[in-house]
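[09:14] KT: can someone run the structure on this one? pasting the chain below
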Amino acid sequence: MEDGTQVAIKNGEILATANTLKGGDGLPIKGLYNQATRGLGVGNLPDEGEGQLLDSRVATKYTLRRASENEYVLKGVKVNRGVNNDVAYVRGWVDFNGNGKFDLYESSELVTANADGTYDITFKNTPQLLNTSVDNIGVRLRVSVDKNDLRLPTGLASSGEVEDFVANVIHQPRGTSHVTKGLQGQKQEVNLPTNAMFTASGKTIVSNYKQWAQIDNNTAPKMVLNDTVVKSEEPTGKNC
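[09:31] RB: done, structure tokens below
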């Protein structure tokens, strides 16, 4: 350790140290500690899982949420620019149509990271995921110090890293359709409680996407009036 103390290192532990291997450049590297050689095995690291890319203060699982009619967001992605880099760029692709490849229109907005930190990856002008039986979807993220490396989901890049993973899909409730008919000027009524005007979609996070979501009929709906004002349902004695 830097303060002179010593710790026992177990075989197979992941260590970060300066690259002092033969021909090394002295820059930081990670590898598995080999007790027999007392060195690092570079290039055979296991996948670090969600913790490698996600800021646990924001998200602990890869989750793709619908932000608007044609916009989705992947929240809490950690970006590290690397050593001696002032800026890095990030772009993602999502297999929205489920054809097993990343099409050009399935790319995200380009994210410019001027500092190491947490960023949201936004996908605009994308098709809606209308199939609510889809629980997860394929995602690719690429990071590079050269934005031109991120024009396509495949191909060589001069720097950076690529990560492929599966993200869970959050489906919003859907509105139900109710039709009344009558003569012009005739009063029309829909005699339904507010919570019957929506149906739950997709499966729940708490069940690890094994159980279908249900509308909670014991909780009053809330009306979003604007960006900052949300009101609870209040009986008026009038039908909608």
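[09:33] KT: thanks! The helical segments are 50-53.
[09:34] RB: yep, looked fine to me
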